[in-house]
Design brief:
The chain is an alpha+beta fold. The chain contains four helices and eight strands. Strands 3-2-1-8-4-5-6-7 form an eight-stranded mixed beta sheet.
Length: about 210
C-alpha cells in the first residue's frame, strides 16, 4: 500500500467526521434557539429546562421539528400540554391529565412526582417518543424516559393515550380533569393531532416551574 496516499485519505475521513459532528451540534443549537422563540407562551423556567433537555439528549433524537412540553405546575383544568412547532414558530396548547399518585386528594394540582413502579404518579424529565400502537385506550404512543427521574417509564408502561376523563367537558362538571395512572392522558378529540405531530424520535419534556 502507498502510505503517502493512504494517510491523506484517513485525514480527510477524520475531517469529514468532525464536520458531521459539528453540523449535528449546530443543528441542536439552532433547535434550541428556535424553541425559545416558538415557545414564548411557555413559562420561561420550564422552557429553559426543555431547551437544556433538547441539548442534553440531542444524540437520541431523530427529529427536532416539534417538541412537547408539559407544565405540571398548572392545574389540570388549564391547557398545559404544549406542542411547540419549531419550524413554524408556533405553539398549540391542550389539556392533559396527571397521575392519581401525584394528586391523591384529587385537587386538580400535581403535588409530587414519582418514578416508582406502582406509584401511579407522573414523572418529570425528558422522554423519547416511541412507537405508535393500539391498546385498551385506542391509538397511543410509547415513551422512553431519558433522565434518572423518569427512567422507569417503560417498565411502568407510561405512554401517551386518550381518555374520556381528559375531555374539556369534565371541567364544568367537577372543576378539574380526571387522573391517569401516570400516563399523559389527553382527550379523545386531541389524541389524533398529538400522535401525528409528536411522532417517533421527538422529545417530550414534563416538569413544573412552580411548587403546588
Amino acid at each position: 500500500m502507498d502510505m503517502h496516499r493512504a494517510l491523506p485519505r484517513r485525514t480527510l475521513l477524520t475531517g469529514a467526521l468532525a464536520l458531521a459532528a459539528g453540523a449535528s451540534g449546530a443543528a441542536v443549537a439552532r433547535s434550541g434557539g428556535g424553541l425559545a422563540a416558538a415557545a414564548a407562551s411557555v413559562d420561561p423556567i420550564l422552557r429553559e429546562r426543555a431547551m437544556a433537555a433538547l441539548a442534553r439528549h440531542g444524540h437520541a433524537l431523530w427529529s427536532r421539528d416539534v417538541v412537547g412540553i408539559v407544565d405540571f405546575g398548572l392545574p389540570s383544568a388549564t391547557p398545559r400540554f404544549h406542542l411547540v412547532d419549531i419550524l413554524a414558530g408556533t405553539t398549540t396548547t391542550l389539556l392533559v391529565a396527571h397521575g392519581r399518585g401525584s394528586d391523591p386528594e384529587h385537587t386538580g394540582m400535581l403535588q409530587t412526582f414519582s418514578n416508582v413502579e406502582g406509584s401511579q404518579a407522573s414523572s418529570e424529565g425528558a422522554y423519547l417518543i416511541g412507537e405508535p400502537y393500539v391498546g385498551i385506550h385506542g391509538a397511543s404512543r410509547r415513551l422512553a424516559g431519558l433522565d434518572p427521574t423518569n427512567d422507569q417509564a417503560e417498565p411502568r408502561a407510561i405512554v401517551i393515550h386518550a381518555a374520556w376523563y381528559a375531555a374539556a367537558d369534565m371541567i364544568p362538571r367537577q372543576g378539574r380533569l380526571g387522573r391517569s395512572d401516570g400516563c399523559f392522558a389527553v382527550s379523545e378529540a386531541d389524541i389524533g393531532q398529538v400522535l401525528a405531530r409528536l411522532g417517533r424520535g421527538r422529545l417530550l419534556y414534563a416538569g413544573r416551574s412552580r411548587v403546588a
